[in-house]
Amino acid sequence: MSITPWIVIGVAVTVSMTLVFVVHWLLTHQLGKVWPNARYVVSRSAVTAYTAAAVVGANLALPDRDDVSWNTYQVIQHAMQILMIGTLTALGISLAYAATDMVLQRLSAKNGDADRRARRLQTQVRLLRRVITSIIVVLAIAAILFTFDAVRALGAGLLASAGVIGIVAGVAAQSTLSNLFAGLQLAFSDALRIGDVVVVEGEWGRVEELSLVNVTIKIWDERRLVVPVANFTTTSFENWTKSGTNITAKVVLPLDWEVPISELREEAGLLITGSKHWDGRSWSCQVVDISGTGEIQVRVVATAADTGDQWNIACEIREHLITWLATNYPESLPRSRTEFVTSAGNDDPDYAAQFPTSAFRRAAAPAAAPGTAHDSTNGSAQAGNPEEV
């Protein structure tokens, strides 16, 4: 092969890549001023466009059959077929991603927690382009494989036994297929969207990415929890923003029985109604339970517009009421009461006088009746034991 065909190939590649450079320059400088979305086309096709242009230019300037030997011509033709399929597929995928990036950008501009429709569409677009990209890549690989004569001859036999192969492939790829269908089910059933606030495996976070295999949860402390997609269709999880962003903050205070409930309720009301994190819907302060250790459970609730305000107002209520109670009603803070009960024969007034009556009580032991039998196991009277108060 003479040097002339190589010069022709080099010139063709240079011309085609120059054309791509001119198009990119126009999109960046001229069209970019009137069409802001042009930057997505340029950024996505920065590599694939030049590669495809080089391959197309070289393919157009290939030497004729008479210029090279038959073996060399076959090798060049086969290599160019593979390169054309690969590069044009990559270019098509990059342009498709650029088009979907434009849609996603418009959706994310109004993608607040309250805009559930925008977040649902964003999730569906992201998932669909992954599915379509996977299908295109599989078809491109199959097309490349069928350029080989041995594989093409094998293809007829494979098609004849497609039923058996389909069953085997289905069993082998059961986990992958279940994740794929689970991802589509989540996206189109509106059960999970990108940006949703969820509680999964005891972790609170926001859905950052929904792919064909995993769901990535960005936890509040910047960690990422990666969960298989199929888990969201087989196990339960909390979705705090499925129907809306409104949520209620709850603060439970274990307090002593001496707490002034009316004053506490009034103070909580003044705090909540004056807070910028309260959405103005409702609030309450109620005694909801009595714990097994003797404290009363006071629950203060306040509504908030979203999870950020819910967290802030809960912390605000907790911090303010703790400080207010400690300053004005310290006797309302939770206490553990202990009661000493002494036996009849060990009544020592000096010992009992060491403890204030508000913290410890001591029951008087009635005199034992004449002739009362004593228990030999513990040494106390079976009748006339001190009664616990």
From TrEMBL:
Keywords: Membrane, Transmembrane, Transmembrane helix. Gene3D superfamilies: 1.10.287.1260, 2.30.30.60. It holds the Pfam family MS_channel_2nd. SUPFAM superfamilies: Sm-like ribonucleoproteins. It is found in: Membrane. Residues 374-383 have a biased composition (Polar residues). The keyword Membrane applies. The keyword rRNA-binding does not apply. This is Small-conductance mechanosensitive channel.
